[in-house]
Amino acid sequence: MGLFTKDIGIDLGTATVLIYVKGKGIVLREPSVVSLDRDTGRVLKVGQEALDMLGRTPDNIVTLRPLQDGVISDYETTEKMLRYFIRKANGRSLVKPNVIVCVPSRINEVEERAVRDATRYAGARWVELIEEPMAAALGAGIDISKPRGVMVIDIGGGTADVAVISLNDVVVSESVKCGGDKFDDAIIRYVRREHNVIIGQRTAEDIKIKIGCLSPRPEKLTMTVRGRCVTTGLPKEINISSPEVMAALLEPAKSIVEAVHDVLSKTAPELISDIAETGISLTGGGGLIYGFDQMISSRIGIPVHTQEDAVCCVVKGTGIALEHIDSLRDAKVNFPEKKFL
Fold first, then answer.
1. Residue 325 pLDDT level (bands cut at 50, 70, 90)
2. Less packed terminus of the chain by CB within 10 Å, N or C?
């Protein structure tokens, strides 16, 4: 690595992109959204400015998310988005940065190559990948170097990754295509079914953040939202309560609990003993839904702890990986040719 080369860590999330610059910390946090001119393909807005246009654009402008379920669904748009974010994080430097990118566990070779190539063509000098649960554990300050089992659940916008880690290695892992977006979709379906009203993605997310829960709240919360009546096609205002939102969220949450159970069923008894003693770490924005940790704990019988600053654990982990990548390479600790684990 050159003396003047910046080292950058990227949490390439379905909903949000976070960037960590070595020596500076987290310098960027923006939605994974791009607005394009439908006729020319020209990028109009990226990030928050593009999100503000979502659902409010004329026919010639399309606003989209180029990542779905944690992987690239629109290669060219992802490359353009990454180029914009890398330039913004890299400042006026003319030297291409070295980049570590987080990817879901169980990513296949085609998806891995797409992330690597898109990052390189977006302006990276050198690219390595790190699995999200590993980065989340590092960012949460968990010591993963000892012969002791730790378990991490990272719930992002598109995927939930569950992993048991020991000796700087992922022992058992599972990735399910269920995250914050699926919770939003569940709220949209519930409101349409029970209230005969259609609401948008942003309204659903607002409901999830403000009154969403997966265990009963001490007090019942309500929220007034507006949408379009299915019958009349006219605007309609409704009140929705936290127990209703809980009913909507339980179904998608079950798939994450099942993934946790599946990983535990494949884990050695000695490692399960370690996990039962220290508990499970919950990270990612999707894990911040009220009572999610209590729900998982009640289903599997092991304490679950939501990490402080859960949203930033993964990108902070890339920063730690940047600090130690040379020594890890030298030690040859689980360093395949193509992926940093």
1. low
2. N
What DSSP letter does each residue of 223-292 carry, written as one string? EEEEEEETTT-SEEEEEEEHHHHHHHHHHHHHHHHHHHHHHHHTS-HHHHHHHHHH-EEEESGGGGSBTH
Clarify whether residues 36 and 145 are in a common domain: no
pLDDT tens, residue by residue, 5-34: 688 999 999 999 999 999 899 999 999 999
Among 296, 330, 319, 337, smallest CA distance to 140 is for: 319
Domain range spanning residue 306? 140-178+253-310
Are 109 and 30 part of one and the same domain?
yes
Given the DSSP bridges, would you call strands 25-31 and 16-21 parallel, antiparallel or unpaired? Answer: antiparallel
Crossing angle for the helix pair 201-211 and 180-195, to the nearest 10 degrees: 100
Q: Does 226 map to a domain?
A: yes
Task: Dump pLDDT digits (tens) for 86-114.
Answer: 999 988 777 889 899 999 888 889 999 99
Q: What is the pLDDT of residues 117-151, one digit of tens each?
A: 999 999 998 899 999 999 999 999 999 999 999 99
> Tell me, what CATH number does 154's domain have?
3.30.420.40
233 belongs to a structural domain: yes
The contacts found for 292-301 with CB under 8 angstroms, 24 or more apart, are: 292/155, 292/214, 292/215, 292/253, 294/214, 294/215, 295/214, 295/215, 295/253, 295/257, 296/153, 296/256, 296/257, 296/260, 298/215, 299/257, 299/260, 299/261, 300/257, 300/260, 300/261, 300/264
Q: How confident is the model over 141-194, as pLDDT tens digits?
A: 999 999 999 999 999 999 999 999 999 899 999 999 999 999 999 999 999 999
The answer on 297 and 149 residing in a single domain is yes
Reported pTM? 0.89
Query: Residue 261: which residues within 8 A CB-CB, separation 6 or more?
Result: 299, 300
Give the number of domains in the chain. Answer: 3
Residues 167/143, Cβ–Cβ less than 8 Å: no
